[in-house]
Amino acid sequence: MQVSAHWLRYTTLTFVEREFGYAVARAYAGHLEPTRSDGATYTYVRASLPEVAEALTAITGESHPLARVNHAAQNTSA
């Protein structure tokens, strides 16, 4: 299996979208503003900074001061 930067980004964003939703995945990817191809509904979908921090915490296992839920603590207590 070849691992490329594209594959890592795709895999990470797929996980974030499935676990945290489209708005968080879009913000996590740095796509803060919807484009015309996203459609009218996505104009109203936004992720907060704490939601993006929560996704980062889930992926890295490290706590983040802006995350509402500390996934790092949850993973070590299981």
Task: Describe the fold and architecture.
With 78 residues, the chain is mainly alpha-helical. Helices cover 54% and strands 0% of the residues. The protein contains four helices and no strands. It has helices at residues 5-20, 22-28, 49-60, 71-77. Helix 1 (5-20) packs antiparallel against helix 2 (22-28) and helix 2 crosses helix 3. It is flat.
Task: Throw out a few tags for this protein.
single chain, 78 residues, mainly alpha, 4 helices, 54% helix
Write a brief structural summary.
With 78 residues, this protein is mostly helical. The chain has helices at 5-20, 22-28, 49-60, 71-77. Helix 1 packs antiparallel against helix 2 (22-28) and helix 2 crosses helix 3.
Q: How far apart are the termini?
A: 31 Å
Mean pLDDT: 81
Helix content: 40-55%
Order of helices and strands: HHHH
| Biggest pleated-sheet summary | none
Beta-strand segment tally: 0
Low-pLDDT runs of 5+ residues are none
What form results from the Cα inertia axes?
Answer: flat
Rg result: 14 Å
Strand proportion? under 5%
Number of helices: 4
Layout of secondary structure:
Layout lengths: L4 H16 L1 H7 L20 H12 L10 H7 L1
Helix pairs in contact: 1-2, 2-3
